[in-house]
Specification:
single chain, 4-stranded antiparallel β-sheet, alpha+beta
Amino acid sequence: MAEAEVIVQLRTPPRLATTGTADVCDACDVRDVRSLLERRFGVTPEPLHPGADDPALIGWQRVAVPAGMDAEAVATALRGHPAVEAAYVKPPADLP
């Protein structure tokens, strides 16, 4: 079984401050979600659009779920978190 990918949209994306870094209180949601994933599944989220400064993009995260781990269980746990708007298992890409 291949690695799966869970896509996560945060309910309130972190806003970029004038310094280009996330506001401290907005970053709490990301830290809470990261803590849940590390504690329960041993995985960490990463930005789906690294370096983006568009507010519509910075709230999206990607979670690589190793083979043998239930990706749907990861998505379900994320959907139960108050900071998460949506989480789904990305369908596999079609072969060329």
